[in-house]
């Protein structure tokens, strides 16, 4: 079998997340329809690397599908063909033939997410769908200080959604940094894996620190408390981007 890897971008505004759902329009569902149409096989499966939530965007979602050796469609044809068949808010940015063993989800060694804040009195029309608008000036130095407590291997129970069904809440955050390019503030997080809504709950807590509602050292105590009620609000989905999947 030939194994085809896709790098996928999408504006998540109009989708109920990445993962296929029977009664909802999803990014995976739209890409799968396009692939099946090109290949002519309605039983074909599309594997995705990350189950992004409703409203979350992606710059570097990864997917793969397998086709018979007898199918001679090359990667360039897939690239052009899939982009002509998917909606305008989904873009296939790269197509590559990979080894038959490659699996977009199980081979992933980590993912990088970016959360975008628009920190100004008035929101730009260009960023309203892609950032959390915060009018009040954030104390970024305090947020950066707080973020140091989140790096490393920890039990992130305090930052997982109540409905999270993960077997363990232990995760390793390899990097977490905050970048400012006024009026945009971007929070980058790279980890080996994530709990349900972990990034958005971390962002909501860091914003509390930026407002002065919490001290930077409170984040350490929140981690140690292992209780979701100790942390801040869940940041809105539309500020979150899946940037890259690491293999």
Give your account of this protein's structure:
It is built from five helices and ten strands, in the order E-H-E-E-H-E-E-E-H-E-E-E-H-H-E. By secondary structure, it is α+β, with helices and mostly antiparallel strands. Strands 1, 2, 3, 4, 5, 6, 7, 8, 9 and 10 form a ten-stranded mixed beta sheet that branches. It has two domains: 97 residues, Pseudouridine synthase I, catalytic domain, N-terminal subdomain (Alpha-Beta Plaits, 2-Layer Sandwich); 137 residues, 2-Layer Sandwich (Alpha-Beta Plaits), CATH 3.30.70.660. The chain is 22% helix and 30% strand. The radius of gyration is 19 Å and the shape is globular. Helix 1 crosses helix 2 and helix 3 crosses helix 4. Strand 2 and strand 3 form a beta hairpin.
Fold topology:
Layout: E1 2-10, H1 27-39, E2 47-48, E3 57-67, H2 75-85, E4 90-98, E5 110-119, E6 132-134, H3 140-147, E7 152-155, E8 170-181, E9 184-191, H4 198-211, H5 218-225, E10 240-246
Parallel strand pairs: 3-10, 5-6
Antiparallel strand pairs: 1-3, 1-4, 2-3, 5-9, 5-10, 7-8, 8-9
Helix pairs in contact: 1-2, 3-4
């Amino acid at each position: 079998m030939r194994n085809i890897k896709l790098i996928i971008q999408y504006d998540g505004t109009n989708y109920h997340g990445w993962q296929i759902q029977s009664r909802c329009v999803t990014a995976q569902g739209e890409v799968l329809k396009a692939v099946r149409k090109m290949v002519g096989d309605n039983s074909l499966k599309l594997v995705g690397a990350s189950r992004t939530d409703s409203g979350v965007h992606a710059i570097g979602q990864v997917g793969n599908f397998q086709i018979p050796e007898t199918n001679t469609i090359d990667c360039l044809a897939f690239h052009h063909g899939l982009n002509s068949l998917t909606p305008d808010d989904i873009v296939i940015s790269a197509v590559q033939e990979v080894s038959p063993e490659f699996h977009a989800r199980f081979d992933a060694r980590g993912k990088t997410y970016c959360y975008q804040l628009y920190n100004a009195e008035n929101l730009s029309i260009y960023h309203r769908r892609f950032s959390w608008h915060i009018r009040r000036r954030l104390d970024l130095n305090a947020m950066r200080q707080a973020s140091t407590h989140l790096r490393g291997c920890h039990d992130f129970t305090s930052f997982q959604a109540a409905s999270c069904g993960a077997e363990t809440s232990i995760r390793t955050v390899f990097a977490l940094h905050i970048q400012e390019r006024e009026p945009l503030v971007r929070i980058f997080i790279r980890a080996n894996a994530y709990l349900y809504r972990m990034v958005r709950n971390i962002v909501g807590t860091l914003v509390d620190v930026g407002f002065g509602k919490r001290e930077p050292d409170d984040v350490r105590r929140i981690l140690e408390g292992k209780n979701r009620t100790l942390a801040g609000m869940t940041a809105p989905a539309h500020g979150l981007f899946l940037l890259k999947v690491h293999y």
